[in-house]
Predict the structure.
Amino acid sequence: MQQSEQDNDNTESASQTSDESMPANSSTRQGERKEAEEEDIWSSLYKSFTQAAQQEQQTQAEDSTVQILTREMDDYVQLPLLDRNSNELDWWKQHTGQFSHLYVLAKKFLSTPTSSVYSERLFSGYGNIFEEKRSRSLPKSGEKLLFLHNNMKLLDK
């Protein structure tokens, strides 16, 4: 037992002398490496927590937007219908505060003036395809020709 204690003492003194014989730069470098590793660990941990928090905030924002839209839709559906002669855009302007999200959609879809010009052009083009000379053409062929005729300008780009 005394022999093993002496061996331990000798080992400790040998390690002390080897540490003393090592240059100071080596221990400084090892300390810097440990600090850099600890810094990397903490920075990656911080990044992970930051990303998780941002994802949570985004999810909450999406959930709250859905809840707001749902509430606005429910409130809107419960209102009485407008008279046929009333102006829908004026009504939406008056109720912008109450239905702020729906107002954006209403303004987009209600402000477009209705016109039959485009549909008349389609029927005219369809009539030109199905003349008496082309009475044997199949409806599918006519639809394809009309589609190509109306979209040819997009192919040129």
User: Anything to note?
Assistant: The first helix runs from residue 2 to 21. The radius of gyration is 39 Å. Residues 1-78 form one domain.
